[in-house]
């Protein structure tokens, strides 16, 4: 495998620091820079809890991409920042691998168009855990037979976006096979606003936020006299790393932007 030069944005965050540990283990992955607002000018190895790597922290994505020779940007930041970073990467001919969630449909469309114009490959995946990708695909299959479905996602209480990117992607995949249906009683009335959850094409999404959780989702289908529940749990952020590594390996050969790891795992 050829060397791949990587920049990580959000490198001292919960996911970013896990990504650095993954990069450290692979000889063919070479960390050339990090972006965050707190550690400008410091080496990764100088920051407590981060691996023993020499790459420097930069304050701004454009400064960083000018200073280093990067092939791939891994972005694990926040919705607004991640969108700007992905755009900057594409404009600089650097391939984005984006785990950051909370992008709008318009932003995804714009980034896809930009990648096409620039002929730069990229991957935006709301969930890099292999099991979660399969859970979404199994839900897509089940929805063909069970149009009654509710999605319950549960995350740690530091998460800023709701519903989760995974829940939105699951609903989009279900929509591809489910016969459109407004679920529940037609006269249903919420006595407390939000009691029935968020509505996506007539199905409901419920978001739970509690300390101690990592990332968990149940997709529960029902028909007369039966119930099918498809469930995935990430107990540790290491669960996302094999998917990120796989995406980094694949993205160097792409010339378009892909939304969802299933396109590389299963197509
Ligand atoms: N696709 C997937 O498989 C997964 C995706 N995620 C997503 O990844 C993202 C990050 O999650 P998580 O690690 O838990 O969040 P954290 O809050 O732990 O980390 C986010 C990091 O981004 C940094 N950051 C904020 N603003 C900037 C900026 N302007 N430039 C550079 N860095 C910045 C933060 O720094 P500071 O602390 O200084 O603000 C922080 O270090 C979220 O969108 C989450 O939904 C999470 C898990 C799996
Ligand atoms: O913020 C998180 O933690 C996670 N975010 C992603 C999402 O919004 O779906 C992926 C995973 O669920 C963890």
What this model shows, in words?
- By secondary structure, the chain is of the alpha/beta class.
- The chain folds into 2 domains: 4-124 and 238-265, NAD(P)-binding Rossmann-like Domain (Rossmann fold), CATH 3.40.50; 130-235, Dihydrodipicolinate Reductase, domain 2, CATH 3.30.360.10.
- Helix content is 33%, strand content 25%.
- It contains 8 helices and 12 strands.
- It has helices at 14-25, 61-67, 79-91, 105-118, 130-143, 165-177, 241-251, 262-265; strands spanning 4-9, 29-35, 56-58, 72-75, 95-98, 122-124, 148-155, 198-200, 203-209, 215-223, 226-234, 257-259.
- The chain has a 7-stranded parallel sheet, sandwiched between helices.
- Helix 1 (14-25) links the parallel strand 1 and strand 2.
- Helix 1 (14-25) packs across helix 7 (241-251), helix 3 runs parallel beside helix 4 (105-118) and helix 5 (130-143) packs parallel to helix 6 (165-177).
- The longest helix is centred in the middle third of the chain and has 14 residues, at 105-118.
- It is elongated and about 60 Å long.
- The model has no long low-confidence stretch (mean pLDDT 97).
- It binds NADPH dihydro-nicotinamide-adenine-dinucleotide phosphate and the ligand O=C(O)C1=N[C@H](C(=O)O)C[C@H](O)C1.
- NADPH dihydro-nicotinamide-adenine-dinucleotide phosphate binds next to helix 1.
- It is an enzyme of class 1 (oxidoreductase).
- Keywords: Amino-acid biosynthesis, Cytoplasm, Diaminopimelate biosynthesis, Lysine biosynthesis, NAD, NADP, Oxidoreductase.
- Pathway: Amino-acid biosynthesis; L-lysine biosynthesis via DAP pathway; (S)-tetrahydrodipicolinate from L-aspartate: step 4/4.
- The active site is at residues 155, 159.
- Homotetramer.
